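Quick one:
INPUT:
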């Protein structure tokens, strides 16, 4: 899959394509339906299928501290989009210039820079400055410039819409089975193992620290997890949050994972942490001894969970 960062990096060979547009946070089943649709149309017309997304996501640009927690940061999203077979992703930087782009100017990008032949959008998608562009405007532009436009209705599951918002609610409740049903894949976080304060080692439970590169995470607490990306699949227990017992001013959440029956050096390794069960919410303990006892209970509980599942 080719990733194009910015309109200025478009080349003549990038013209004439099948396009969809959106955040695609989580690349859930609703997104997968759209991807499948544009791939089928791309095969029919013998053209590449392209997704346009924005980085940061618009809500993060306007208010990064209170924007909804991402299900996937850009790198994770690109991995999933590649797995689902997209040909290209055009990632546009969302800044003042993008924010102030008129709906008509955005249509000009689709027509003049990308040579759009077929466009698919969600049923509630709006675009351009102050969200003045809508499906009706796209239809008119399609007639004027010779491209087709269609919209996909929101996918539902158990009579409720499949959305990134609903998946965040599932994760906050610890309902990973339903989250997986809506995503079409288990919820996971990918990242590189980095050096931490070595506190876990001092407490007798060394951890792999993974920077989340975000102000908020959609999960918060202690979890039974699987870790992929090493020599084999490992099981473990993870804490995602701000470590209130040992850090009073951590600006961003941290993911710490203790792998069972593992002692190798994995600094710099890229791993995928798959969340299977919530054990408890994050809690501030009175002292390190209380924290150490809680960690032991968490480990015992996680082992019990995997054992009962035959893992």
């Amino acid at each position: 899959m080719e990733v194009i960062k910015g309109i200025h990096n478009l080349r003549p060979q990038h013209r004439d394509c099948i396009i969809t547009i959106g955040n695609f946070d989580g690349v859930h089943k609703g997104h997968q339906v759209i991807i499948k649709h544009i791939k089928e149309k791309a095969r029919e017309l013998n053209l590449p299928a392209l997704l346009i997304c924005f980085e940061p996501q618009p809500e993060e640009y306007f208010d990064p501290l209170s924007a909804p927690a991402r299900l996937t940061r850009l790198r994770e999203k690109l991995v999933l989009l590649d797995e689902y077979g997209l040909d290209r992703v055009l990632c546009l930087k969302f800044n003042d210039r993008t924010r102030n782009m008129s709906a008509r100017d955005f249509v000009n990008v689709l027509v003049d820079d990308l040579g759009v032949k077929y466009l698919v959008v969600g049923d509630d998608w709006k675009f351009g400055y102050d969200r003045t562009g809508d499906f009706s405007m796209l239809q008119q532009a399609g007639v004027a410039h010779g491209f087709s436009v269609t919209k996909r209705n929101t996918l539902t599951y158990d009579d409720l819409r499949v959305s990134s918002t609903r998946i965040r609610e599932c994760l906050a409740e610890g309902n990973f089975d339903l989250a997986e049903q809506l995503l079409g894949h288990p919820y996971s976080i990918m990242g590189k193992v980095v050096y931490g304060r070595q506190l876990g080692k001092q407490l007798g439970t060394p951890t792999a620290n993974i920077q989340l590169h975000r102000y908020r995470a959609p999960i918060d607490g202690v979890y039974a997890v699987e870790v992929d990306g090493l020599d084999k699949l490992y099981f473990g227990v993870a804490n995602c949050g701000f470590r209130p017992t040992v850090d009073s001013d951590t600006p961003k959440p941290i993911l710490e994972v203790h792998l069972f029956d593992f002692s190798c050096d994995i600094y710099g390794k890229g791993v995928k942490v798959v969340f299977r069960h919530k054990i408890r919410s994050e809690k501030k303990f009175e002292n390190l001894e209380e924290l150490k006892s809680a960690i032991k209970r968490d480990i015992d509980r996680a082992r019990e969970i995997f054992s009962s599942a035959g893992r």
